Amino acid sequence: MVLEEGMAERIKRHQLHGDALKAGLEAMGLELHAQEGHRLSMLTTVRIPSGVDDATVRKGLLNGFNLEIGGGLGPLKGLVWRIGLMGYSSTPENVLLVLASLEKMLTSEGYKVEPGAGVKAAVEYMKKH
User: Fold this and answer.
1) Phi and psi at residue 110, in whole multiples of 5°?
2) What mean pLDDT, rounded, does the chain reach?
3) pTM passes above 0.90
4) Residue 27: which H helix or E strand, with range?
5) Whose CA is closest to 33, among 46, 48, 50?
6) Among 9, 52, 75, 118, which lies 20 to 30 A Cα-Cα from 110?
């Protein structure tokens, strides 16, 4: 699959979708964990908002939307989520699915987010790039 797509196109696709995801997360008022210049296109770490239960959100994403995101490891356990968009799963549809599903779970946890803000920001980003 990599040879068929071509390495340059594959890198470009991962960068586009990773950046669109980041734009959507920030539009939802979420804070990216890794500093600018140290971020990966295929794996995004986002800080868990205060008052939001890590396990409840991840379990709800898995059971309700068939989405699995990772929790933080080591000293970051309970503080960040790790969202991967790698290989075959790096698609516009998956970016939007993650954002819409995460919005629903965050809202159920009492986190205030403008409805549709994440999806809208991601779509706008992908249209421009």
Assistant:
1) 90, 5
2) 96
3) yes
4) helix 7-27
5) 46
6) 75
